[in-house]
Amino acid sequence: MAGSSHGHTPAAWTGVIISFIGFCVAGVFMVAANPAGFWAGIAVTLVGALVGLAMKMAGLGMPKESPEYAAARARAGEAQLGH
């Protein structure tokens, strides 16, 4: 897994940070018994997911792995194991 950069992209970081802020807002308002604030926090959480998706579509996320790359990665892994 050390060679993997899963999630280390601007799209992933931005989406998670925005969603985390929304989660914290929703949690505070849930404890404060304020339904409007709670749902606002849930909305911010969903906005984080949409922002991350939009950034990924704009090219700031991980590119999809091609079949050739997947096969080469599998062969390299087998070579390291000595098979």
H/E series: HHH
Distance between the termini: 19 Å
**How much of the residues is beta strand, in percent?**
under 5%
Uncertain residue segments: none
How many DSSP E strands? 0
Give the helix tally: 3
Radius of gyration: 19 Å
- What is the global morphology? elongated
Main sheet overview: none
Secondary-structure-derived class? mainly alpha
Domain module tally: 1
User: Helix coverage percent of residues?
Assistant: over 70%
Mean pLDDT: 87
Q: What report would you give on this structure?
A:
The structure is a single chain. By secondary structure, this protein is mainly α. The chain has one domain (10-81). Helix content is 76%, strand content 0%. It has helices at 10-31, 35-60, 67-81. α1 runs antiparallel to α2 (35-60). It is elongated.
